[in-house]
From TrEMBL:
The entry's keywords: ATP-binding, Membrane, Nucleotide-binding, Protein transport, Translocase, Translocation, Transport
Cellular component terms (Gene Ontology): chloroplast envelope
Single GO BP term: protein targeting
Protein name per UniProt: SecA family profile domain-containing protein
Gene Ontology molecular-function annotations: ATP binding
Pfam families: P-loop_SecA
Ranges of residues in domain SecA family profile: 1-169
Keyword Lyase: no
């Protein structure tokens, strides 16, 4: 197949979807700045064709992370920029990928009432990711059942070899 382009992931990318869901639910509470669409890009979850069904635990953890973000935002004396807020969310997501769900649950269990914002966001991301993985797997299976993707049109490429690969695959 003609490589070196964008790979199509049947069903979607669960990590990207989970990141978008967490950002959409937490960022508005951390910063009142609006993102610059030219540098930050448009939120991709609003472009999705299907709705992801989040489980009750994911919804609860997202709500808790949002409440904690609101608390942190109000308790800080200076306003967080959108970039600082997004950076904090990204650090939390990286921590979630590094530590894992079990360790995050242990860390949260150690503190009774309030736990650090990064842990709250990381735990919310980990549970949302599980829901997104199920959703993407189901959608990918549905596409495969229906016969996969079919090329219905191409534009000319500077390489005739690539044109032929796309048209005859």
């Amino acid at each position: 197949m003609a490589g070196r382009g964008t790979d199509i992931i049947l069903g979607g990318n669960p990590k990207m979807l989970a990141k978008e869901i967490v950002e959409d639910n937490v960022l508005p509470f951390l910063s009142h700045d609006t993102p610059d669409v030219e540098t930050e890009g448009e939120s991709t979850s609003h472009k999705g064709l299907s709705k992801i069904k989040l489980g009750p635990s994911s919804l609860a953890l997202l709500a808790k992370a949002a409440i904690m973000a609101k608390y942190v935002h109000k308790s800080e004396s200076n306003e967080w920029s959108f970039q600082k807020a997004k950076s904090a969310v990204m650090e939390s997501i990286e921590m979630s990928n590094t530590i894992g769900l079990e360790k995050l649950q242990e860390r949260v269990a150690e503190v009774t009432e309030m736990y650090p914002l990064c842990d709250a966001i990381a735990l919310a991301y980990a549970t949302v990711l599980k829901d997104c993985e199920i959703h993407c797997f189901d959608e990918g299976a549905e596409v495969k059942t229906l016969g996969g993707l079919h090329v219905i049109g191409t534009s000319l490429h500077e390489s005739r070899r690539i044109d032929n690969q796309v048209r005859h695959s």
